């Protein structure tokens, strides 16, 4: 829904239920052309069973790699909408009641080492915030604008902000109606 709000030129973090109803109305119009809503069905993209998928960059890029390895002659491209898209971050935290705080810091420091972060990015095809890791990542990762987002596209990205429970209920209700509607 957030991406639809952004597409419509609305605040993607709107707290107004009417904005989400407007986004749902747009999604309802294209619902007949949507085969399914799933968060991990990128194999259908790689096999050619679907022609468009909307998803997280890493999963789509892995689907592209699988399609290339299958050698079926499929050309699959990953595109960030010209209006922008969701930007998100993985975080690490130490619980307040952690029993082994020193070990937690050691682990976090290890993960944040540039060589380790480069290996992680090479594996999962996600960028990372450790800038020296970029120099150590595979060239195919470091130079891929769908992984390492250029500044001009970064300006179009937005982070999803927390919203209150009442608005979550409205959004979830709209989603359920759309997902359960017949094609």
Automatic annotation (TrEMBL):
UniProt-listed InterPro entries: SBP (IPR006059), Sperm_putr-bd (IPR001188)
Molecular function via GO: polyamine binding
Compartment(s) of residence: Periplasm
Cross-referenced Pfam families: SBP_bac_8
A single Gene Ontology CC term: periplasmic space
Keywords on record: Periplasm, Signal, Transport
One GO BP: polyamine transport
PANTHER family: NORSPERMIDINE SENSOR, SPERMIDINE/PUTRESCINE-BINDING PERIPLASMIC PROTEIN
Protein name listed in UniProt: Extracellular solute-binding protein
Lineage of producing organism: Bacteria, Pseudomonadati, Pseudomonadota, Gammaproteobacteria, Aeromonadales
């Amino acid at each position: 829904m957030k991406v639809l709000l952004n597409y419509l030129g609305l605040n993607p973090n709107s707290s107004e239920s009417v904005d989400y109803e407007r986004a749902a109305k747009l999604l309802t119009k294209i619902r007949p052309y949507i085969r399914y809503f799933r968060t991990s069905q990128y194999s259908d993209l790689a096999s050619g069973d679907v022609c468009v998928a909307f998803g997280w960059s890493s999963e789509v890029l892995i689907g592209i790699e699988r399609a290339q390895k299958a050698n079926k002659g499929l050309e699959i491209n990953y595109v960030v909408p010209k209006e922008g898209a969701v930007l998100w971050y993985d975080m690490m935290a130490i619980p307040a009641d952690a029993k082994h705080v020193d070990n937690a810091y050691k682990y976090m420091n290890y993960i944040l080492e540039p060589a380790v972060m480069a290996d992680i990015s090479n594996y999962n095809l996600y960028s990372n915030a450790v800038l020296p890791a970029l120099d150590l990542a595979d060239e195919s990762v470091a130079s891929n604008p769908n992984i390492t987002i250029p500044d001009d596209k970064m300006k179009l990205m937005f982070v999803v902000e927390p919203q209150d429970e009442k608005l979550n209920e409205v959004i979830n209700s709209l989603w359920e109606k759309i997902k359960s509607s017949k094609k």
